[in-house]
Amino acid sequence: MSKLNFAIRRLFQMVATLWVIATLLFVMFRAMPGDPTTYFLSEGMPPEARERLIAQYGLDEPTHVQYIEFLRSLVTLELGISFHSGRDVIDIIWLYLPNTLVLMFSAIIFAYAIGIPLGVLAAWKRGEGTEKGAVILALIQRSFPEFWVGLVVLGIFGAWLDVIPMSGMTSGDHRPESFLAMITSLDFIWHLLAPAAVFGFYLMGLPLLLMRNNMLEVLAEDFVDVCRAKGLSERKVMFKHAARNALLPIVTAAAIAIGYAVGGAILVETVFSWPGLGREMVRAVLRRDYPVAQGTFMLLATTVVFMNFVADLIYSWLDPRVTYE
User: Fold this and answer.
1) pLDDT tens-digit series, residues 15-64
2) What is the pTM of this model?
């Protein structure tokens, strides 16, 4: 099978997967207990006004008509109006998405900047205390959920030592003029440090263990002995030759990690009260705000599915030996 045919087949699979996810989302939210109209209808409202408002949101239509309208809205990216705020869902997503992206990429950079060198050292020092310590650290990182680590960090460094803020992205008296001015300010970096470190700590286990395993395979190859026979220093053999050849699976895994990090940010944002898309999605679910909840869920699901698709494609581009049968 050629790469083009593989890409086309994966593209169709991605569309089918998203359709299944969208259908499950629609059914799941309608099956939830509670009436969404109670969140935007007041008790003293005249019956005519109540019916007009319910019709405005399409809640008076049969379920199958609502389902078709939901699929149409996904295709046209007209995700509807929020039951709670009355704002366009696209505007809500654009308001909170940048905050989530800043937190997510800060955590990923933190995780890979520390995880990869630790993985290299763990493989290079195999059988020694460095390897055992790195493996134990990776297991701890993958075993402790990020929301629990976040609560511990908030309790120790926020409530007890008072060296990190307890919530939010900025201090109450900090009013930046633009988003760029905000994310480059020291006040924002101070607020970002704890949630990014907690999230990065959780993500670090994957690159650490993956790099260690890849390095162990690379170190068993003949070219490493040839490099040593040439008299190259241990550091040059380790980082310039062995580590570079072990990076390929890390690059492809990073694409998948980005997709899953979007979902993982939900818990961190909730614990640290970070005004991102994940926290807004949780609030929308609690308020039975179908348009916002469905829109944010679909965005996160699309990101995960799309990044898996990208990982499949770049793997063949980075390694020509890969074939698709």
Assistant:
1) 999 999 999 988 888 777 766 666 666 666 667 777 777 777 777 788 88
2) 0.79
- Distance in angstroms (rounded) separating the CA atoms of residues 280 and 191: 19
Which class for 173: exposed (0-12), middle (13-18), buried (19 or more C-beta within 10 A)? Answer: exposed
Maximum distance among all Cα pairs of the chain, rounded to whole angstroms: 88
Q: Are the C-beta atoms of 204 and 114 separated by less than 8 Å? A: yes
User: 59 Cβ partners below 8 Å, 6+ apart?
Assistant: 36, 37, 66
Kindly state the tokens that stand for 255. 């694409």
Q: Kindly report, residue by residue over 102-161, the tens digit of the pLDDT.
A: 998 899 899 889 988 898 888 888 888 888 888 888 888 878 888 888 899 989 998 888
Phi, psi of 231 (to 5 degrees): 90, 15
